[in-house]
What does this fold into?
Amino acid sequence: MSAPSDAPPTALSTRAIARARRKKSLQRFARAFFQQRAGVAGLGILLVFIVLAISAPLLFSREMLDITQTLGNESLEGPNGTFWLGTDENGRSVLAVLVWGARASLIVGLAASLISMVLGTLIGVGSGHYQGFVGSLLQRLTDWFLVIPFIPLVVVLAAVLGQRGLGTIVLVLGVTSWPGTARLVRAQTLSVEGRPYLERAKVLGDSDWQQMTKHVLPNVMPLVLANTTLTVAIVILSETTLAFLGLGDPFLDSWGTMLDKATGAGAASTGAWWYLLPPGLCVILVVLAFTLIGRTLEVVLNPRLGVSDR
Amino acid sequence: MAVEATVAPAASDPADERRVRGPRGGGLGRFIGYRLLAGLGTLLFVLLFNFFLFRMLPGDPAARYRGVRSINPEDLDRIRDELTAPLPEQFIAYLKDPLALDGISSWKGQPVWDLVSGRAWPTIVLLGTTTVVAVVIGVWVGIKAGWNRGGRFDKVSTAVTLLFYATPEFWLGLLLILFFSTGIGFLPGIFPSGGVIDSGLEPLSFAGIGSIAEHTVLPATALAAVYLAEYSLIMRASMVDELGQDYLMTARAKGMMDRLVRRRHAVPNASLPTITLIFLNIGFIIGGAITVETVFSYPGLGLLTFEAVSEQDYVLMQALFLVFTGSVIVFNIVADILIAVIDPRIRT
It folds into this structure.
């Protein structure tokens, strides 16, 4: 901490003041977050899966997923010394597919949530900021999309789009999951719009774009991040559902695809629990991790609780 | 102005007068009117959306009917004419008959609405059972957890509900089949793993209802376990919101028993968000029904959706999508009106 009385007042530029304030509030935020056990637990679980996803090629070579390379192995074999979690119907190691599946599920979850976040923020800020036709049109659009049941929409959209690659799945989940974010952002935007500094910005002649990016967005962003964390959880669950219904990328081994193939191979009726349990448990853990982090972020950032940066 | 109004209750401000007279009749009626109008707008949007969604399909739409033997040539010609017309013409035709009442399934060659109506009752049974079970258990857990926030029951139940919240419902269904239909270890497989009723039984007979119940236990459990989490989390949150309210203090100061304070004062006020959620959740439960019915081969609309998707029967998909969306819209309106009837503060 510098002593303000020693330094001449001009030495501190506005930018430096802003930076110092931001750093301080970030520290306060981190302290508040780490006081919440649930959030820390979620972060811990997530880190484990991120490390697994990154180090997948080091743990199991890509060949282990290639069906043509595993013909020699017995199919649907129970756990043993070589295959800790047994084998699938093609004789592949369930553990290897599982670890590679972490990649697929996390990539889809994060990428689709990013699309959803951008769309939701743009539409939410726009509908809160613009009065009149544009604003009410965007608000209507949000309300309409909120009503459409999510999973049927995702299923139909994926079915209609036909060719199924990673990109299609990400797009389908991204363009369908934004309305919740948009509604939240709109509410927050409306509350920011009523504050005096926005009136000042308007009077000083800031353009709509400047008002939105310089004043509204920084105030909305923390809530958006908390909300996006929760969106990741929903998106990962939905990807699992899509893949399970056979609408996933057939060449991508996600946890949902594993469950689809396990059902196709009759794992539930033949008692092949080693093929059925692990992918489901991984989905639960990752979704739980994102949910815990998101809920903790909401608690920490909730203005009503007075820990946020104002 | 506001101060003046509180000092002199008989203020002649017309707005105040209206408030004093109470919104009982006109307020509620107007609210319902607005709500129905908004619902109609949503429905129009969905119809529009539905049109363009299913026009994004690549390829010759009529070619999908080629493999269907049971379809007669006149119908096929009619379908081809309809599907290859210019987009504006198609749109006008669509507006004349948005529900595609004479739509033919490319998978079965039957009218789609016959297929849909034949499959509706199992889904209604399943979703009805699920909702009742999930609401009763979820609300009970939420009340108990929220009232003693931070207690042991709260900690355990919140952890368990969050765990279920993160569970894919169809995976839970698969596990239930593994444990209770196939049987594993010492567990005998006692429940059927597919269908909704044993063949040959009349659905409305005594044995028929028993058979339906037997077939519905596992899928309903899978769905209810996942969705009760949301009810209990919301109920808990709104109980916690009520905890610090003055009226609870007043009730306690009267010497009311804690149990009664909870039941008579806190719970009714905290129930409102949950009531809304019960109806709003129908959309999510429908999503769950698609996978769970598929897992259990439960012949409802969810399984039909899966079949439509795997058979690439877009006419059937379109009809199902309309049914799902339409029912969600209706339930949304019902929820809003119900809340307005219960809580006069909402009517504005």
Notes: DSSP finds 13 helices and no strands in chain A.
